[in-house]
Amino acid sequence: MKIAVIGTGYVGLVSGTCFAETGNHVICVDNDAQKVAKLNAGELTIYEPGLENLFQRNTKEQRLFFTTDLEEAVKDVEIIFLALPTPPGEDGSADLSYVLGVAEQLGQMITSYKVIVDKSTVPVGTAEKVAAAIKKNAKVDFDVVSNPEFLREGVAVDDFLKPDRVVVGTSSARAQDVMHRLYEPFVRQGNPIYFMDERSAEMTKYAANSYLATRITFMNEIANLCETVGANVDEVRKGMGSDNRIGRRFLFPGVGYGGSCFPKDVQALHKTSVDNKYDFKVLKSVMEVNNKQKHVLSEKILKYFNNDLNGKHIAVWGLAFKPNTDDIREAPAIYTIENLLRAGAKVTAYDPEASENMKKIFEDRVNFVEHRYDALKEADALAIVTEWSIFRTPDFSFMGELMKEKVIFDGRNLYDTELMIDKGFYYNSIGRNTVELRKNHVN
Ligand code: UDX
Fold first, then answer.
1. pLDDT in tens, 267-294
2. Within 13 Å and on the Cβ side, how many CA atoms surround 36?
3. Domain ranges in the chain?
4. How high is the ipTM of this complex?
5. How far is the CA of 257 from the centre of ligand 1 (A)?
6. How far is CA 121 from CA 18, 29, 89, 262, in A?
7. pLDDT tens for each residue of 115-155
8. Which end of the chain is more exposed for a tag (fewer CB within 10 A), N or C?
């Protein structure tokens, strides 16, 4: 099939490349000429495991193309994907100006029937708005479909090629047939394609992300309570998660959820509820608790040092909002580091991929290093903010030699508490140190 993907950001690039991988002819469009030039020169513009191979193969085999020429790109295609940004406005609602702007242009450009697909996360009712914007100028038939993505950064290629489900919102049988042909190769293992109305598809995306954010937030609160009552959240998590109705995944407490999706989508769904005069109390609490949770690690550190970090050197491991990405949007590390600096600390930071992006925020206020152990030299404490695999089994004796004090604050519960105590570390993690253990160790 011939496909155009408008917007070569994260979602557009992964989607376009994966559609090419199943044999489609894909042309990706972006108005950023520099970006297009880079992609045409064979250079990827994002970091995503597994994407590079697919990108190189499909461009070489002439199934994947990049251009700035929107009109030329959409001329001969059957399907047009809109993978454009929908940033949150000041009031939390998704800004649709990019999506609707392109929709109006498409109306003027299309000369034969097209299926136009909203891939961006957009509020309920957007498919209708997009259709109206196209219709203003359109002289031919078209259908607008809502097809939300459920890609996780870091495993997006796998998520795209082997989706748990595909959600397609359309009220047109013709569009349904096109979408079925397109996605059938991705669900041969037996996973479903759910066809539904446009509004339900749009709502599904927000409901899924908001539920996951709620689940994490609930566990963060359980963890915080575990600390005060002397329970171990690891045990609690296992005991809970083995109930089939709950399930084991996505129950890990930490330093709050971040990234480009959860914070934005929870906010946008809350805004939708406000606009519709529905008081969505749970969502309000989720936002409130998560905003607090992003400060939990720095608060623990401050407490340990009696609220004064002047002259203290804190090492930070992990800057990305989660492992296997260089994305720092809404990353808990931003809040952690900001708080540490404000309290007077000198901060040295290491991340396998995200340092360059973090430098744009902190510039020379933070010392970024190339190797994880370099961050630890003469450190008074180590703060672990992202659970990169490389941090899971470090050389603790070497760490102890490098650090001024053997003190670790772990926001991702990477190590066993007893083991760390055996190795002579003060070790404080999320929801796990029993009152007893902590008392023994601090005193
Ligand atoms: C998410 C959704 O999973 C995906 O379906 C959607 O399309 C986009 O948003 P992503 O933002 O890439 O994907 O990250 P995800 O792996 O879902 O993690 C989101 C945040 O939750 C991260 O900050 C992560 O650290 C945190 N998290 C996740 C936890 O704190 N605990 C968990 O158990 C799981």
1. 999 999 999 999 999 999 999 999 999 9
2. 16
3. 2-187, 205-293, 296-428
4. 0.90
5. 7
6. 19, 19, 14, 11
7. 999 998 899 999 999 999 999 999 999 999 999 999 998 89
8. C
Long-range Cβ pairs for the range 34-41 (8 Å, 24+): 35/8, 36/8, 36/66, 36/67, 36/68, 39/8, 39/13, 39/66, 40/66
For residue 208, the Cα-to-chain-centroid distance in whole angstroms is 14
Determine the atom of ligand 1 nearest the C-alpha atom of 258: 23
Largest CA distance in the chain: 78
**Number of residues that this document lists for the chain:** 443
Q: Which residues line ligand 1 (CB under 6 A)?
A: 149-153, 209, 212, 216, 250-252, 254, 257-259, 261-262, 321-322
What's the token pair of residue 267? 């906010």
Tokens 């993505």: give the residue. 149
Q: Is the pLDDT of residue 92 over 80?
A: no
Q: Inform me whether the pLDDT recorded for 434 exceeds 90.
A: no
CA pair distance 73, 89, nearest whole angstrom = 30
| H and E: helices and strands count for the chain | 18, 14
Question: 């250079």: which residue's tokens?
Answer: 43
CATH 1.10.1040.10 fits 205-293, yes or no: yes
- Give residues with Cβ within 8 angstroms of 273, minimum separation 6: 279, 280, 283
Residue ranges of the annotated binding site for substrate are 150-153, 205, 250-254, 258, 322
CA distances from 154 to 14, 46, 89, 164 (A): 11, 11, 27, 16
What's the whole-number mean pLDDT along residues 281-310? 97
Does 296-428 match 2-187 at the fold level? yes
Give the domain 296-428 fold: Rossmann fold (3.40.50)
Using CA positions, which residue lies closest to atom 27 of ligand 1?
A: 257
